[in-house]
Specification:
heterodimer; A: mainly alpha; Arc Repressor Mutant, subunit A; 4 helices; 49% helix; B: alpha+beta; RNA Polymerase Alpha Subunit, Chain A, domain 2; 31% helix; flat; binds zinc ion; DNA-directed RNA polymerase (chain A); transferase (chain A); transcription (chain A)
């Protein structure tokens, strides 16, 4: 629904990195480089950010009337 | 005599070479850091209003996961909180969240207003929920000191260690050097002999041993380790490790006391019979 606040596996806080991660990747940067830059070193945390799909907007559509 | 040499350190990360202790001690410290160092986390949420698309439970769950700064010195010790020696209110902090969306908006951790100036979200930019125009949230959240063995939201950080690797070069092998450099690039120089053990982990080195056809052998130093600690930001890594040592020492003394009580209670003849 919304970006996970922590890594599911190790517990490292990640929520604050979602917005910079998303905007930089959408701007064309390689996800690998962005994750390195953000200091996300473990692969559990990398997959948590990489595999997230933000779909709260799809739900919010039904709230706007 | 045990010793430790710090090889890397900043506010949230510490890496050291530790020598002269059995693995059980290093592992105890690791386990205390992971599951016993107390931090603040939201544990009780009173929802006054929630017209967002998230269920109350989901919102409360996300609030719980928000890391909060934890100045341990300003609060009672965790044992006092757990045993009821102090009033539970002394181990908790109230936070409030009040937002009404005039337009589509994102609610961030920074919107949480804390009653205590030093207990507040560590990362203010964490998104909690999105609101559409007209939706609103009003709630009271109570954070309390707790331990990660109860719930991972109270986890202060991480720690791990590996044995200090020992590389034995049997013969010079350029093919092997190429493989090892692909596994541990920074650790190797111009030949296999130019090796820095602090830049490659034991496991990675074992991987390179396995693909080298006996050109190198990987062993480890007994009672020597590379240990690292990572704080999740609730407190500095120094404070986290200091608190871990305090808790571990407390456990040791509680164990010794229990042992002394048990042996004192046993009649003198009982021991002879047991050893005979
Ligand atoms: Zn992780």
């Amino acid at each position: 629904m919304m970006a996970p606040l922590r890594c599911f596996t190790c517990g490292r806080p990640l929520g604050h990195l979602w917005e910079p991660f998303k905007s930089r990747v959408l701007a064309g940067e390689s996800p690998e480089k962005v994750l390195d830059d953000l200091g996300v070193t473990r692969y559990c945390c990398r997959r948590t950010l990489l595999a997230h799909v933000d779909w709260i907007d799809d739900v919010l559509k039904f709230e706007r009337r | 005599m045990p010793s430790a040499k710090v090889i890397q350190r900043d506010r949230l990360y510490l890496k050291a070479v530790v020598e002269g202790v059995p693995p059980s001690i290093v592992n105890s410290i690791r386990r205390v850091v992971i599951s016993e160092v107390p931090v603040f986390a939201i544990d009780n949420v009173v929802i006054i209003q929630n017209t967002s698309v998230m269920y109350d439970e989901m919102l409360a769950h996300r609030l719980g996961l928000v890391p909060l700064t934890t100045p341990l010195g300003q609060f009672p010790k965790i044992e006092e909180c757990e045993s009821g020696l102090v009033d539970p209110s002394e181990c908790s902090v109230r936070l409030t969240l009040q937002v009404a969306a005039d337009d589509d908006m994102v609610v961030y951790a920074r919107d949480l207003v804390s009653d205590h100036p030093d207990v507040k979200p560590v990362y203010p930019d964490m998104p909690l929920v999105k609101l559409a125009k007209g939706e609103s949230i009003a709630l009271e959240a109570y954070a309390r000191l707790g331990r990660a063995k109860e719930h991972a939201k109270w986890q202060a950080g991480l720690s791990a260690y590996y044995y200090y690797p020992k590389l034995i070069v049997k013969r010079d092998d350029s093919e092997c050097l190429k493989i090892c450099k692909s596994v541990c690039g920074e650790a190797f120089g111009e030949s296999l002999k130019e090796f820095d053990p602090e830049k490659c982990t034991f496991n990675k080195l074992k991987t390179c041993e396995a693909s080298c056809n006996g050109s190198i052998e990987v062993d480890w130093e007994r009672h020597k380790y590379v240990v690292w600690f990572e704080s999740f930001g609730n407190m500095s890594v120094d404070e986290m490790v200091a608190e871990a040592f305090r808790i571990l020492k407390l456990k040791f003394s509680a164990f010794l006391e229990a042992l002394e009580r048990a042996t004192a209670a046993q009649p003198a003849g009982g021991q002879e019979a047991a050893s005979g």
